[in-house]
Structures are given as C-alpha cells and as structure tokens.
Design brief:
The protein has about 130 residues and is of the alpha+beta class. The chain has a domain of about 80 residues: SH3 type barrels (Roll). The chain is about 25% helix and about 25% strand. The chain has a 5-stranded antiparallel beta sheet with strand order 4-3-2-1-5. Strand 1 and strand 2 form a beta hairpin. The longest helix is centred in the middle third of the chain and has 16 residues.
C-alpha cells in the first residue's frame, strides 16, 4: 500500500491567479465522453429479441379459413374481432406475434388485408388466428 504520511500535514494549494472552481462546475468537466457515438443504440438493437415465424399445420390453416369465411359472412355487421398475426421486424430477421382487437370494417381482396374501423390494416397472409367477440 502507499504511505502518504509525509504529505498529510502540508497545506492545500490555493492558486493566486485563478478563482476557486465550485464543485458543480468541477463535476461538469468529468461528465461522460461519448467516444463511441451510436454504440449504445447498437447494443440495444442487438439485445432486442425477435422470434421466427412458425409454420402452420394443415388443420390450423383449415380452421383459420373457416373462421375467415364466417367473418366475411358477418362483414356488414362489423363484428369485434381479436386477431393474432406475425409482424416482421423492419431491421432484423424474425419479428413478433401481435394481438389486436378492433371492429372489423371489410376485407380488401385486392390488397389482401383486413381493414378495421380505426384504420388498422392487417395483411391476411400474416394472420395466425382470430376470434369474433
């Protein structure tokens, strides 16, 4: 260990040329230096989890198709629907399963999307399940 006993009794140096810096100003000079700009964002992006889309079985597809046909029959009644769909990630491979509940407006066959009264649109190919409330 270090022995500082030889300098402990010396008086603290006070400059005659410069004013004493307040503690608040001293802290600023030691604030974080961002040498690696964007590094924190890269770490956060890498840590963000995604999942891969699971393949649906033939039975699941048949069940989804039957439910979809029933939804189209009730289109004019604008039922409330809960939809679970796969949303691909815009920045990395994979995505996330998202559940949305809203009032169904219509199916846009040309674009292949379910449209809701709040203007939400969900691609039909991404839907994995839905139920009418």
């Amino acid at each position: 260990m270090y022995d500082f006993s030889d300098i402990m009794e010396h008086p603290h140096h006070v400059s005659g040329k410069r004013r004493h810096m307040p503690i608040e100003e001293r802290a600023v000079q030691f604030s974080a230096f961002a040498a690696l700009t964007g590094y924190d964002e890269k770490i956060d992006e890498t840590a963000r989890l995604t999942v891969f889309r699971e393949a649906m079985s033939e039975d699941d597809i048949a069940e989804l198709d039957a439910a979809f046909q029933r939804l189209l029959e009730l289109e004019t009644e604008h039922p409330t629907v809960t939809v679970t769909y796969f949303q691909p990630d815009a920045r990395k491979s994979g995505g996330a399963y998202v559940t949305f509940t809203g009032q169904f407006r219509h199916y846009d066959a040309e674009r292949g999307k379910l449209c809701f009264t709040d203007r939400t649109e969900i691609p039909g190919d991404d839907i994995v399940s839905f139920s009418m409330l």
